[in-house]
Amino acid sequence: MTERIFRYLREQQPETPCLVIDLDLVEHNFRRMRELLPAAHIFYAVKANPAAQILSRLAGLGSKFDTASRGEIEMVQATGISMDRISFGNTIKKEKDIAWAYQQGVRLFAFDSEAELQKLARVAPGARVFCRVLVDCGGAEWPLSKKFGCAPEMAKDLLRKAREWGLDPYGISFHVGSQQTDLDQWDKALAQVSQMFFALAEEGVDLRMVNLGGGFPARYRAEVNSIESYCEAVGRALVRHFGNRMPEVIIEPGRSMVGDAGVIQSEVVLVSRKAANDRKRWIYLDIGKFSGLAETMDESIKYRLRTARDGTRVGPVVLAGPTCDSADILYEKTEYKLPLSLKPGDKVEILSTGAYTTTYSSVAFNGFAPLKAICI
Ligand SMILES: *Cc1c(COP(=O)(O)O)cnc(C)c1O
Hints:
Elements lengths: L2 H10 L5 E4 L1 H14 L3 E6 L6 H9 L3 E4 L2 H8 L8 E3 L6 H10 L3 E4 L2 H10 L4 E5 L7 E3 L9 H13 L3 E6 L4 E3 L4 H18 L6 E3 L15 H16 L5 E4 L3 H4 L3 E11 L8 E5 L19 E3 L6 E7 L8 E11 L7 E5 L20 E4 L1
Parallel strand pairs: 1-18, 2-3, 2-11, 3-4, 5-6, 6-8, 8-10, 10-11, 13-15
Antiparallel strand pairs: 1-12, 7-9, 12-13, 12-17, 14-17, 15-16
Helix pairs in contact: 2-3, 5-6, 7-8, 8-9
Bound molecules: pyridoxal-5'-phosphate (PLP).
């Protein structure tokens, strides 16, 4: 937690639950990534956190944006940047939304199927298009790939067709899975992608761009490698596989840009046991799976917690949200220990929650308001 967030929470005592984001840390994360991968164009993945102040801070720093829908494009447009800084990166788009984006001036689109390419050819003539390929997501704590991307042979075939159909076959993208812990995954993916590049070049289809997606980490319970080592691994893999035929490089960090910059302040609602001799206490917070902590699904993302009673004796807990749904349990199998003296009304801070929280929060399940974001 940054000093600024710490001070804000102490002085303002905001109504809980709420997410507090330190914009200076977002800016620092952006600058650091640009410094470490100077040749790459950074397209911030808007879905990680689309708070208007985050988008405008990043826009002011020169960031570009990876968007998934008309709604996200409109949020980015509100910052006043030009449309050539937007990528419509979702491979699943309505034709009318593609037409709308094209009319607004967006010229960079993703696809991973023939039917999607046909839509693009119909309503976005001449646009730069890139094909997403399937890659191995092993090592990712929040895998993304199975649903997106196609096999390399199909990708090559579609990129040939793109040209025939009046589009500009611009490049290839992949995503190694979010919160990727295995630094070798970029190397493996780039080995595959560079082969496709060179094979297509021999046929006269000259791709010019490779999009490495996201996958860079935030700091949850487990130690992670530094962002320096991630960027070094990516840089090394690019040189190894492309050498002096380096294409334009795009990266789309979401989680690593905003994750560590946010802290959720929550409050204990109830501490109970299911039987007098139960070893584990149940601790119910005023935030759960439906109010922003969706990435605890299958206990995938394991957040760090902080309480004012840290340093006193602890015992094992099951951690749950406040709604009347039995799926609203955050951690049951994963061992979490919290102070034995914890009681209703105590604050619990959930660290590194700047990414994938506010947008996952339901509108008002059980009457609980959507998670508020406060940018400072
Ligand atoms: C979600 C997403 C990202 C961001 O991934 P992170 O792991 O959060 O950095 C980037 N690109 C695409 C296409 C995505 O869908």
